[in-house]
Amino acid sequence: MKLDLTAFCSELFAAQELIPRARVIARAVSESIAGSSVNIYTAGSLAGEDVWIPRAWSGEQTVRGSSVPVGAGALAELAAGRETLLFSDRDLSREDYAHLDIRRTLRSLAYLPLLSDADLVGVVEILCFENELTAEETTGLQAPARIAASALSAAHRYESERNDSLASISRLTQLYDLEKSFSSTLEMDELLPIIGDKFREVMECSAVNLWLLRADESLELMHQSGFDPTTPAGSLQKPGEGIPGDVSDNGEAVLTLSPDDPRLGVRSAAKTQGGVSSLIVVAIMDRGALVGVVEAVNKLDGTPFDDDEVFALSSVTETASTALHNASLLMAERKVEILETLVTVSHEITSTLNLERMLQTIVNAPQAVIPYERAAIALEQRGRFKLSAVTGLTQVNADAPDIAPLNGILQWAALAEEIVNVRQHGDEIDSDREETRAKFKQYFTESGMRGFYALPLNDDTGRVGILSLESSDPDFLSVVHIELLQVLASQATVALRNAQMYKEVPFISVLEPVLERKRKFMAMEKRRRSLFLALGCAAAFLLVACPLPLRIDGDAVVAPGRRALVQPELEGVVAKVLVHEGQSVQRGEVLAEMEAWNLRSALAGAQAKLESSMLQMNHALAANDGSEAGVHRVQGDYWKAEVARAQQMLEKTQLRSPIDGVVATPHVENLAGRKLQLGDSFAEIVDTAQATVDLAIDDGDAGLLKVGQNAVVKLNSYPTRTFHGSVVIVSPKAELVQDSPTFYARVAVSNADGAIRTGMEGRGKVRTGWYPSAYVIFRQPFLWIYSKVWYWLGW
Question: pLDDT tens digit string along 583-630?
Fold first, then answer.
């Protein structure tokens, strides 16, 4: 059967991909030669070896495996000569077609090379089982073979371009996924595992090592993803000591292709198994500065890395460098925050000699940057340790049920005279001593904590005490936190020792400055000393003889003013609203009218009845009929009362303002048509002519308040305006404000322009009278000293 080239070409080029075209070729050749099977191969390479790759077949499937070596049997002769080959069964041995799985008698075997521009792109293998293939039949397939070669070559190029495009899209998607993954967190401890796992996924290798630059320019292995027995976690390298050190020194990427590379010899020398056979080392740069080094170790398929993979690793490190930079900024910010807290705590504990205040600062202030749940300090007193401060407690009862276990464990830890760091993960307690594990197993069960850290407070003179921190998270302390605690412990030790010494000699800090100033004063020349004495006497005279007004102040809040609700006296529908929101109204002014058709009708009917009764009474009087006139007079009085009642009911349909003020109901004009029941509110009228301001006065100044005293108020809403008024009420009872008793002075302030509104805040002062200057200036310290003396002596 002769092959129809037109139909063949049409069907062949209708398919674009390699395998569909190979199937068309195989089927067309098989149909043109009766009783044959056809295999189509294309040239390719697997694991660095040239092979024939079966793409399609027609008839029986006879090819063994997924590839055939180029030098196998008769195919080797075709690859060498690139000419059509025809073999009969007499010319063939089984070794010539060993790659075929044939269970029938083979009569002929032919090979047609598929050449495109002198390149051997494939081969057509024809197996005849019934008739012997002739040379004329193979010659007739030359033209289809040339067309098939061009078609397969074009399909191969199409698939290569498509695969390159898909690879580019895959790489872009992968880079986007990397950037999204790296941007998912700013925590360095969480970011490093993400980077390591993603790098290992991209590079398809057995391990990825992430080295980060330290302050001394050495590299530390911060994270290892996968398994690399030649480099344990936490390893350090200096420039020039290894491949990562060399890359950190010069910034040039390193690619090793063979395990025989001398640079890998030292690294893998100690390992009999699991050494490094192929390695990529790339520097991680951020804005031209070295951040660290990343290593990709051993491809999973056993092949060596190549330059494309070096480029791929270099590309993804650019994304990782940005994420590492952001994470390092967060770490730096936290370090700054920790240092600021340390400075604040140091300032607090060194600026006072009050032992109780110092203890509270030490156990509470560091909690802003150290995630502990409870801290405690036990101070050494005459050879014993006393629990002196606990986080969140102002008074410590060592025998309390929730404090007693802590007191016991601190007494035990104080005997160790070294840092105690015990953690519990699951049921396992991290400690070398069985005694410690047993003691903390009970303590952790009672307290609910899982992490305990205690460090002694020692100085040159001996033990001051012990500081402990606890948390339900066993890993609540990082290296930075521990460094902070060590610095804090040193400062706290000195401060506590000074406070204890000061407590033993309480007046030394007062007497020494006084004596020092006295010595300096007596060392002055006489004239200068006399001048200072004269100035002192003049200042004392002014303080005693010159009066000053005494004012007491406090926070001011505008209290709600007088208000009234406008309510209907009977049920009905609002027919007309005569005012709008914010309009000033007078007392008795009509605000709205309700529908009153029935009331007006009743009024008109009553008036008509009244006029009729009066007219009939007049007619009876004209006729001198006194009894009839009396009856109509009584009826007239009744209808007169009905008219008055109807007029009164009609007046109730007008809603009037009960006070002078301003309409405060929003959108009151939209209430027209609304039905009002008894008790419903139509509008709210607020009296703004007078405002009331409540001044919060401390308990110590409340005794100076009196009704009628003048006051001034400065509101935040009007910073350049002062409002004057007078005290009208002094609260007879104090209220607790932030655990401090506070009295209120109610000040009446004129508000003619309505500027003052309910809820405004500010500051107010009450003038209590004139007093000597010394009393006004030194009143607070004088009262404090007086209360202390009275507390000590009493009378």
Answer: 878 788 888 888 878 877 877 888 888 888 888 888 888 888 778 888
Which of 478, 504, 530 represents a domain boundary (last residue)?
Answer: 504
- Consecutive H or E run containing 549: strand 547-559
User: What is the DSSP secondary structure assignment for residue 671, as one 8-state letter?
Assistant: G
Parallel, antiparallel, or unpaired: how do β-strands 563-566 and 683-686 relate? antiparallel
> What pLDDT is attached to residue 452?
92
Dihedral (CA of 526, 531, 535, 538) sign = positive
pLDDT attached to residue 471: 92
Start-to-end Cα distance in the chain: 137
| Backbone phi, psi, residue 742, to 5° | -135, 135
In which residue ranges of the chain is pLDDT below 50?
Answer: 272
Phi first, then psi: give them for residue 748, nearest 5 degrees.
Answer: -90, 125
Number of domains in the chain: 5
Q: Is residue 31 part of a domain?
A: yes
pLDDT score recorded for residue 171:
60
At 456 the three-state DSSP class reads: strand
The three-class DSSP label of residue 231 is coil
Same domain, 191 and 319: yes
Q: Does residue 125 belong to any structural domain of this protein?
A: yes
Q: Please give the Cα distance from 533 to 282 (Å, whole number).
A: 80
**Is 29:124 a contact under the CB 8 Å cutoff?**
yes
Q: What pLDDT score was predicted for residue 376?
A: 92
Same domain for 142 and 53: yes
**157 and 24 in one domain?**
yes
C-alpha distances out from residue 698 to 563, 741, 778, 781, Å:
30, 7, 17, 16
DSSP string, 24-39: HHHHHHHHHSTTEEEE
Confidence (pLDDT) at 511? 57
Whether residues 217 and 84 share a domain: the answer is no
DSSP 377-431: EEEEETTEEEEEEETTBSS--TTSTTTHHHHHHHHHHHTT-S-EEEEEETTEEE-
Strands 710-715 and 761-772: antiparallel
Q: Which residues, 6+ apart, have CB-to-CB distance to 401 below 8 Å?
A: none
Half-sphere exposure of 496 (CA within 13 A, CB side): 30
Tell me: do 237 and 156 sit in the same domain: no
Residues 6+ apart with CB under 8 A from 205: 226, 296, 297, 298, 299, 300, 305
Q: Please state the pTM of the whole predicted model.
A: 0.38
What is the amino acid identity at position 526?
K
- Whether 727 and 645 share a structural domain: no
Domain that holds residue 694: 688-792
Within a domain: 192: yes
Same-domain status, 196 and 329: yes
Domain CATH number, residue 155: 3.30.450.40
Domain membership flag for residue 511: no
Taking residue 402's Cβ as centre, other Cβ atoms within 10 Å add up to: 13
DSSP symbol at 704: G
Q: Are 562 and 691 in contact (CB under 8 A)?
A: no
Question: Does 293 lie in the same domain as 237?
Answer: yes
Q: Which two tokens stand for residue 495?
A: 């401060």
